[in-house]
Amino acid sequence: MGFFVFQSQSSSCIRRLPSIAFALAVVLSLLSVAAPASAAERYAALVVDAKSGETLYERYADEPRYPASLTKMMTLYILFEEMSAGRVTLDTQFTVSKYAASMPPSKLGIPAGRTIRVEDAIKALCVKSANDIAVVVAENIEGSVEAFARRMNRTARAIGMSRTTFNNPNGLPDPTQKTTARDMARLGRALQDRFPRYFAFFSTRTFTWGRATYRNTNHLLGTVDGVEGIKTGYTRASGFNLVTSVKRGDRRIVAVVLGGATSASRNAHMKQLIADYLPDASRGKRTAPLLIADTGAISGTPLPRIRPGYEPPALLASAEIGRPAADEAMGDAVVAVASAVPNARPDGIGGDQIAARIMAAQEVAQLAYAPAVSSSHDDPIARLAELAQSKAAHMQPRPRTAAEAASLAPSSRAGWQIQIAAVPSREDADALLEKVSGSARAIVRDREPFTMPVNAGGTTLYRVRFAGFEGKDEARAACRQLKRQSITCLAVPN
Predict the structure, then answer these.
(1) 213 pairs with which residues across the strands?
(2) Comparing 429 with 234, which gets the higher pLDDT?
(3) Which pLDDT does position 244 carry in this prediction?
(4) How far apart are the C-alpha atoms of 321 and 447, rounded to whole Å?
(5) What contacts 258, CB < 8 A, 6 or more positions away?
(6) Rounded-to-integer distance, Cα 60 and Cα 149, Å
(7) How far is the CA of 465 from the CAs of 123, 164, 303, 416, 447, in angstroms?
């Protein structure tokens, strides 16, 4: 019988005792025989406040562990990227190779040469955790498992998963495929932030293929209030793994348990973590940055991230996922719009103009509360994309006041500027200028800080910029330095 040791890492939290039943299980296991060393070496756990990013509980959170089928979270992340970019749709047919068909269970068992719709492939991964379908996805996106694994690792680094190595898309045993509880929590949060529309697939209860109907391997769905998914995993080497997202009221956490001795003990431990630490999650505004990886570069221009701490004045309701989701939906809108730009741009538009359109897309995404966007629209993200492309092609700033003209003086100079963000008030812009001028003084010390009001959809945003760069290379070098300090930056010509 496996057991877990509870240890709070937050001085602000009172250490809680497990439930009586759970404590009894621990005592009985201690009275009988000590847990084998392998079980102790497999165990790790972490609970993160999804709004603040604060760690509420951790145990061996940075120790290397086998991910098993949690690997499929990254496989789905990349598939969702392809869908957001418009290269794949839910109706796209993926072909099954002989190699994919040879995978051991759990699998759907589709014969080589047959096809499967992407929507069914997603459900097969989320619900049944099908090993053959993970390979189907990998081969149809990147051509081979090896190429897909390289993309998995690039994406992991972009998200900030610094201690994870992927060698296959399904999590089947590989001695060098390792991760940590902290990295898995980060991946779970990144899936929420980047793909709020598609994240709902993780809460799918059942999936029917042919004559068989499969129940989701995550048995906390429908039995624990607020559980939204996301993924289970098991191999003999890993033990029983689980990453779970839970939302009750205005609190949300992402919790990870790795190395459970049985699925029942793993689930019991997860329930206990939820009961103990969800009440400690923050209820106010989101302060953690959106975890959106810069993996969708367009003409060498990295995708801008929305600044940490940005909170829209109102919430955009996403009918698809049935909850207010402005802070997550904005991130998806930025990516969706930026991905659409190459397909929409006329021939001859250079990288710098593309960068300007991406910046415009970011600003429109921040205006998720604009009157033109409503929860009754069939696809709010698509509507944001329409607004962004329209704005990018026809940016018409309103007439400037004398005060605004004075504030814009630096932008008339020759050379290049860098933009840190676009925020909804001059006070926010001034505060951000002051913050960056202090925290990144060595990088922007000899530059001229200024704000630039711009009209977007009838609402004024304030661009936060630094002028005085002689050329593109100098401005981009400054951006690279700022990004190392987790400060969003985009180089733009005057």
Answers:
(1) 208
(2) 234
(3) 97
(4) 44
(5) 42, 43, 44, 45, 65, 181, 184, 238, 239, 241
(6) 26
(7) 44, 36, 17, 10, 10
Q: Which residues of 425-463 are buried (b: 16+ CB within 10 A; e: fewer)?
A: eeebbeebbeebeeebeebbeebebbbbbbebbeeebbb
420, 489 Cβ separation under 8 angstroms: yes
Alpha helix segments (H runs only) across 319-471: 326-344, 351-366, 380-393, 402-407, 426-439, 441-444
Helix, strand, coil share of the chain (percent; to 5): 40, 20, 40
CA angle 318–322–323, rounded 5-degree value: 75
- Annotated catalytic sites, by residue? 69, 72, 129
Q: Of how many residues is the chain composed?
A: 494
Beta strands (DSSP E) in 249-340 are 251-260, 317-318, 323-324
Taking alpha carbons only, the member of 53, 363, 322, 362 closest to residue 197 is 322
Residue 386: other Cβ atoms inside 10 A: 17
Q: Is 44 exposed, middle or buried (0-12, 13-18, 19+ CB in 10 A)?
A: buried
Distance between CA atoms of 326 and 366, rounded to whole angstroms?
9
**Distance from CA of residue 261 to its chain's centroid?**
29
User: What is the distance between the alpha carbons of residues 324 and 196, in angstroms, rounded to a whole number?
Assistant: 11
- State the pTM of this model: 0.58
Q: What is the pLDDT of residues 293-311, one digit of tens each?
A: 655 432 333 333 333 333 3
Strand partners, 462: 423, 453
Residues near 138 by beta carbon (within 8 Å), at least 6 away in sequence:
75, 144, 145, 148, 149, 168, 169
Residues 120, 210: contact at Cβ < 8 Å? no
